[in-house]
Structures are given as C-alpha cells and as structure tokens.
Amino acid sequence: MSNCLCPITLTPVIRQCDSSNPGGVAEIYIADKCSVDAISAPNETQVVTSITMVSGATFNTFQQRKNVANMTTTAAKDATSGLATFSTDINLKFNKLSAASRLNFINLAKGETIVIVRLVDNSYWIIGSHNIPCELSAGTINSGTNLTDASQYDVTLQCVDYNPPLKVEILGGISTILDIYAV
User: Which of 29, 85, 134, 154 lies at a C-alpha separation of 20 to 30 Å from 93?
Assistant: First the structure.
C-alpha cells in the first residue's frame, strides 16, 4: 500500500475524431480589475457562474481578425516547494495605428486587468482576478513594411496564477457585462 499525501482525481479524456474543436480567438474582453466587483466560481464545478461589475462598468470588447490572437497557458512546478503555477499569455492585436489604440496601449501598460477570451467555438474563459490580475508583459508598435503588412499594436497580457483559466458560463448570458463597442 502506498502513502498518498496528495491524492488527485482524474477524468478520462476521449479522442475526438471530428472537427468540433476549432482553434482561435474571436474576441477579447478587458476590464480594469477595479471595475469587477466579484467573480463567483463554485469549488465543485470550477466554472464561473456570475461576474458582478461596479455600477456602470463593463468589459471592453477587442475584436480580433482570424488567425492573429491566441491564449496559451504553461504549467510549471517547483520541485523544492511542490507548488505549481500556470502562466497564461494572451496575445492580441489592435489594427491600425490610432490615437485611441495608443491610449489603450498606454493604459494596459500601466494597469491591472481581468480578461475574458471568447474562442471561435463560443466558449468563454476568464484570466485574472483581484488577487492576481493580468498585466502587460510585452508590446510592440509596428508600422509594417509592405503595403500588405498590418499597421498595428501587438500586445501580450500575462497572468501567473495558481490555477489555469476558468470557463465562464453565466446563467442568462454573458452579454450583460460586455460593452457593445469594438476597438
């Protein structure tokens, strides 16, 4: 009999043989962490079921072109402490060099945010919290070289947390906390 100090529970993963698992990011929603009042994710499901915003606040929509934005999470475990962390990077682009995009770039460099990513399969994932928000980890302003090159801001937001991103499934829909304007 083995001595298990940290037992875990696993769920089987079945191989999918169809194309019901497309990759890609459709939209990214960003809010200042001070605009989010509460995030509720019951321990038994680990799914966000409600997000309460400060009065009048919403997540701002950043629509993305196909094949340009992504979200990646990398796990790391420290052998000495036994602690695992999950580093999530969200790479997005603001097309066109504009005054509004410049201000967004500056404010993301200064601020701490909570981010919701909508994948092309219409699933929503939240990254960041009041305790461990997302922050700008890298960014470039690129004019492009050729006529067909994009003129854009390339932004990477990062959150290093003790948990990977949580799925968001809000009863009644997520649209109540999202703005209607695209950048």
Answer: 85
Task: Label residue 121 exposed, middle or buried (CB < 10 Å: 0-12, 13-18, 19+).
Answer: exposed
Buried (b) or exposed (e) across 142-152, using 16+ Cβ within 10 A? Answer: eeeeeeeeeeb
Q: What are the tens digits of pLDDT across the range 26-60?
A: 999 999 999 999 999 888 888 999 999 999 888 99
State pTM to two decimals. 0.86
* Distance from C-alpha of 157 to C-alpha of 138, rounded to nearest angstrom: 7
E-assigned strand segments in the chain:
25-32, 36-40, 47-48, 50-53, 59-63, 70-77, 84-95, 113-119, 124-127, 135-142, 152-161, 166-168, 178-182
Cβ contact 126:90 at 8 Å: no
